[in-house]
Prior knowledge:
Blueprint: H1 3-6, E1 8-9, E2 13-16, H2 26-53, H3 60-89, E3 93-95, H4 96-129, H5 131-137, H6 140-168, E4 171-172, E5 176-177, H7 184-188, H8 196-228, H9 234-267, H10 273-298, H11 300-311
Parallel strand pairs: 2-5
Antiparallel strand pairs: 1-4, 2-3
Amino acid sequence: MSVSNITVVRPSVLTLIGIPGLETVQCWIGIPFCVMCLIAMIGNSLLLITIRSERSLHEPMYIFVGMLGATDTLLGTRIVPKILGIFWFHVPEIYFDSCLLQMGLIHTFQGIESGILLAMALDRYVAICYPLRHAAIFTHRPVTQIAAVVTLRTALLVAPSLVLIKCRFQCYHTTIISHCYCEHMAIVKLAAENARVNEFYGLFVAFIVAGFHLTFITLSYAQIFFTVFRLPQKEAHLKEFNTCIAHICVFLQFYLLAFFSFFTHRFGAHVPPYIHILFSSLYLLVPPFLNPLVYSAKTTQIRIHLVKMLYS
Length: 312
């Protein structure tokens, strides 16, 4: 039987089925998803307004927190409307090019967030290990350059994955994506042609972005802890360690969910699909939801000015 008889050639529309196995309760799952998105949008907006309006927060650490909030806001607006459209209004169709665009933006924002977490770890490393040089190293110009490099580097790494899908694949086994948003491997698995190049490039990008960032973040915090516990005063231990708690919480919840989603998509053949899809969705929803709560609660300067702004 020829390939053309069993495949779809150049589909213009794809179908997102949501969470396989939980179709009957998706309308209820959409409620916490919507609540988390609203809290994330409000929390990150307040965080950005507070940092922008208070001049004392125009320091590298708080600027990076603001960048993280802006990235989380953009990420949430890219996925939640479509997910709720599937869950509540039964609109699963999405144009093929729109699906590729959504995939590219999602992975770009994820890479940018990972890069910002690395920048925050390096900022804390210099501030604690070399406090006298911190003001000279992390001026506004290097911070702007770091943001530009992280964004451009991530976009250049993600763009070839879109080109490889668009140019290499002509025939697809099906147009139904067993997911609630457009994810790289979910699209690649639809192809009727050899997808090893795409899979290899996806692993390469994951290693270059997440692997590189995770290694240097871990080394930075290890050096920070080593330096902090060598300080003679216990009060200094607590004060310096407290400045890193919020960053560590954000770092852990981001990468734990990221690695679970990554490995189950590629090697978790025995993991039920609905478990994988739920965690993949939470990976995109939980960081934007938790980040403003964590920084508002654990960062004294942000909390003080946020409360002051709300009461005024």
